[in-house]
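Q: Can someone sanity-check these two? First one:
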Amino acid sequence: MVLAAVAAAAVGAGCAKKKVAAVTPPAPPQQVVERPAAPPAAPPKQVAAAPEQARPAQRSNMPDAATRKRIDELLARIEDAYFDYDKATLRSDAIEALRKDSTELRDILKDYPDYKLTIEGHCDERGSAEYNMALGQARAEAAKSYLVQVGIPSQQMGVISYGKQKPACQDETEACWQKNRRIHIVAGATSE
């Protein structure tokens, strides 16, 4: 029986469950995700110096040749303003003479602050030179005052009196004297 026990033990040992070493299943193969190759790094952009923005041409305070020509045309059309004997008050016909083209003249001059006009005051030959200089000045000032009311800047107009020094007519008649009692506007400045 001993033998039988040994044999049974041997058989039992042989029938005993075999312990199998636990084998871990192999890890699933790693999937390699291919990323597209990054494009080669662009060379750093060189920031070009911003071109200087073209500055608008600075507008001149003096009119160009074409504008000066237009001003001269307007001044030629503006009739002399005439005055009554021994008066410096603008008559209605004098106001009309000044008004005709003064609006366009004003619109041009506002863009050219350095451009000046001169208002000349004139008298007929009667009276002393000193008296006529003062009267011519008063006539020029009256015309300037009107033109300022129309909108022409005061600083763009100078006044000068010629008294009886520059007559438009030489006859000794009332019709001729009337032509000499006037203001005349010219381009260019004189001191007040």
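And here is the second, same format, sequence then tokens:
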Amino acid sequence: MAAGGITLQNLPRELPFDTLNKITDNFSEGRLLGTGAFGSVYEGVLEDGRVAVKKLVENAPVAHEQIFATEVQNMMVLEHENIVKLVAFCREKQNRLVQINGRHIIAEITETLLCYEFFPNGSVDKKLFGDQSTNIDWETRFTIIMGICEGIHFLHTLPSAVLHLGLKPQNIFLDDEMTPKIADFGFSRIFGQDQTRKNTTSLVGSVGYMAPEYLYKGEISARSDIYSLGLIILEICTGKKNSSSTAQKHARNYIEGVKKDWNLEKIMKEYTELDEQGHGLDQVEGCIKIGLQCVEIDQQKRPNIEAVLEMLNGLQ
């Protein structure tokens, strides 16, 4: 049995490029599920079910080799209810006709693809803010928050902790029962037992979700993920999207708006189904307070994930 309780039968398998090309109709627009910094994701169908196929782009902010090694190695040992499963991968050299300095030549290009479980409910972002967004009741929202925190707790408390560093609603998917699944580990870093903080010169992350110390000093720690988590909690509670611009990568305007506007009166107005359920209102108010603690500028004032879960359990 491998690390994390994974059996050999459950390990992701390697598939040929032609197979993945075929099941996505040559990576057609009709199969496109979404596009991010590392590449585009397409829907495909293997013999044992639907999958989401991520095809890495040539100009990704991190080298293909690093993304592949980071994501595949991480995902092979991550088995948890709230973590997306990597089911297959491909890293294969292909001859392609490319244009260089006005001339067309045949070049050898390494195609890198990652296949994950497919979730028809899409991401938390699409469910909350997309074209097909639905009015999710508070009980479901609270369950989603709990599940995300359980997933982060699993990552942060591994013998060699995994920091995600790219947490955002677009990277959290929902299964048929609305259970959240954290995905996209291309940015993540593995920390040894004796490490609590680290500096990096390769700053990559999502606008609106990066912690200030990471954004301005390149400093990363478990509390970098906590900052991103806090913003996600606030978005789920308020139903209002953090629409930070490149000038507001740490979302302080959004955070100040939540502090100012989301009092008990506002919560009662937005969650009318909780009018006669004081406990539910307490939960919403409590979660907003937890979210605001997580986005403190001073990282020492942010709770760790154990404390976040303890506070959430206290609201049940």
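A (reply): Looked at the second one. The radius of gyration is 20 Å. Residues 138-156 form the longest helix (19 residues).
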